[in-house]
Amino acid sequence: MNGYFPVPFVPNWVVDWQTPEAVQVSAITLAVGIKALFFDSQIGEEEPSVAIPDMPYHSYDHLEKFQTFLSAYTIDGFFGSLLEVVDVKGWVRSDSTPVPITTTMVNTLLPGIVGYYGAGQPVDVFF
Predict the structure, then answer these.
(1) Which of 27, 42, 55, 103 is deepest in the core (most CB within 10 A)?
(2) pLDDT, tens digit, for every residue of 39-79?
(3) DSSP characters for 12-59?
């Protein structure tokens, strides 16, 4: 596969992956580091804006036998490319949430909305 494999059931979504170091095997661990970049094959590879951090293979501070570490690089790349290959849209109606969404609640994200529409007004979100 030459380091690329398609994501099943999602047309044009591909993962470019590599294992920069050999698998580490000991009496108690099996560790492998994988660098993965998700991308839309019609657009091409786009690196996330965050740097690839040094990641641990195993934390001896925790007793869990199965450990996984994800970086912001992988998460940003995953969601950035997901939005390119999947048509994400929908409605969130203020009265359909456990706590109704109001102008007061979203004023931090949308400064001035309270001044324009008034405090405590219901907000429906379309995305």
Answers:
(1) 103
(2) 999 999 998 988 888 888 878 888 787 888 888 888 999 99
(3) TEEEEEE-SSPPEE-SS-EE---EEEEEETTT-----SSPPPP--S--
Q: Answer yes or no: do 24 and 49 share one domain.
A: yes
Task: For residues 5-19, give the mean pLDDT.
Answer: 91
Query: CB–CB of 51/73 below 8 Å?
Result: yes
pLDDT at 32: 87
Q: How far apart (Å, rounded) are the C-alpha atoms in residues 58 and 112? A: 47
In the chain, how many domains are there? Answer: 2
**Tens-place pLDDT, residues 88-127:** 889 999 989 999 999 999 999 899 999 999 999 999 998 8
Does residue 32 share a domain with residue 55? yes
Per the structure, the complete domain to which residue 103 belongs is given by 91-126
Whether residue 119 is found in the same domain as residue 63: no
CB 94 within 8 A of CB 124: yes
